[in-house]
Amino acid sequence: MKRNTFLPFSRPDIGQEEIDAVVDVLSSGWITSGPKVEAFEKAFAEYVGSPYALALSSCTAGLHLAIALLDLKPGDEVITASLTWPATVNMIHLCGGRPVFVDVERDTVNLDVSWVEAAITEQTRAVIPVHFAGQACDLNGLRNVCKSRGIALIEDAAHAIGSEYEGNRIGSSDNIAVFSFHPIKNMTTGEGGMITTHDKDTYERLRLLRFHGVDKDAWKRYGSAEKEGYDLLLPGWKYNMTDIQAAIGLTQLKRLDNMIERREKLTMLYDELLKDVRELTLPGYVSYSVRHACHLYTVIVDRDKAGITRDEFMQEMKKQNIGTGLHFLAAHKLLFYRKHYPIPDGLLPETEYISERIVSLPLYPCMKETDVQDVVFAIKDILTKCKK
Question: Which of the residues bear the PTM N6-(pyridoxal phosphate)lysine (predicted)?
Fold first, then answer.
C-alpha cells in the first residue's frame, strides 16, 4: 500500500536543545565567529582525537584549503575517486592540479589501493580517498603507498563523522581530514565543515587562509606595538564558521554517537529485509576493523534482473511517496570533466557500473522501523510489477 505521507531521503535531527542554543547565541549579541566556534573546535578535536581542528563554512572550503597547501604547479596530479560529489574534483582543478581518477571496489565503493599504487607517477602530489557512505577506506594501505613515495594523503571524510578505522576515529591520523556538516550528514550545523591536522604549522597556515590571511597578532609582532590593527601575512579566503552554526554543532556532537547507533539499527533492518531481493545488490562491508558511520544506505539496481533502470526505479519510488538519493554519478562522465580530462570508456569499469545503477534509500535517525518496512514493501512491489 502506498504511504499517505512522503518519506524524504534524509532529514536533519534537530531538537529543542539545538533551537535553544541558537536562541542563546542570537540573544548574546555575538553571532559571527567567536567563543562558540572555539568551543566547537575544541570539542570536535577531542571527539576525533586530533590536537587541532578548524571550523569552516563548508567541507568544500576545507578541501580547498587542504589542496591549496600543496601549492600545485601545472602538470601536478592528484589521485581520487570519480564516484564522489564534484566538490572533491573541482578543488583539485581550481587549485591548478590535474585530477587522476582510479577505480573503486564494487562492494564498498571505496578506492582500490592497488589501482592507486598503479596510478602514481612522478607528477603525483597527493591522494584523496573518499570514505564512502561512512565506511573507512583501507588507510594503512593508502598510508604505506603515500609515505613510501612522499605523497600527501588528504581524507575526504564528508561521510565519515564518527567513523573509525582499526579502533581510531577518522580525523585522528597525522594527515589532514575534512568533514561536512551539510543537513543530510550524520550531524549538521546547517552548512559547515571541519578540518583536522596534527601539525601546528599546518594548522596555523590553515587558520590564516580561512580568514583572508589576516593576523591581528602579527600587527604587534611585525608592526607598531603602540597601535591597534592587523596585518596580512598571505592572501586568503573567507571560510569562517559562525557562532550560530557552532552552537548547533556543539549540541549535535553530544548526540552524534546516539544518532549513529540509530542509523546502525536501521541499516541492519534494511540488510535483513532486503537480503532475499535478488534484483538488488546490498552494500558490502570491509574485512578490516571499522566502525561504519552508516551515513548512506546504497543499493545497486540490477537492471537485467529487475527489468527497470536505476532512474526508472527512483521515479517509481517517488510515486510510492518515498524519496531516494543519487550518490554518485561518476565525475569523469560529467560534461566539464569529459571535456577537460577525457578518459576512454571502460577504463574505470567498477565506477561506471556503479554510477549507472546506484541509489540511496532513506536513512536518518528520526525514521521508524515501520518507515524502513514501507521502503522495502515499495521496493518489492515495484520489482514485482516490473517483471510482469
Answer: 185
Query: Rounded to whole angstroms, how far apart are CA atoms 313 and 302?
Result: 11
Q: What is the pLDDT of residues 81-120, one digit of tens each?
A: 999 999 999 999 999 999 999 999 999 999 999 999 999 9
CA proximity to 108, closest of 72, 132, 91: 132
Would you please indicate which residues are annotated as catalytic (active-site) residues?
185
Cell of 217: 597578532
Q: What is the DSSP letter of 332?
A: G
Q: Decide if 330 contacts 268 (C-beta within 8 A).
A: no
The arrangement of secondary structure in 256-386, i.e. its CATH architecture, is: Alpha-Beta Complex (3.90)
Strands 231-232 and 214-215: antiparallel
Tell me what pLDDT residue 224 has.
54
CA angle 359–365–367, rounded 5-degree value: 75
Contact partners, residue 357, CB within 8 Å, separation at least 6: 300, 301, 302, 303, 310
CA distance 215 to 229: 9
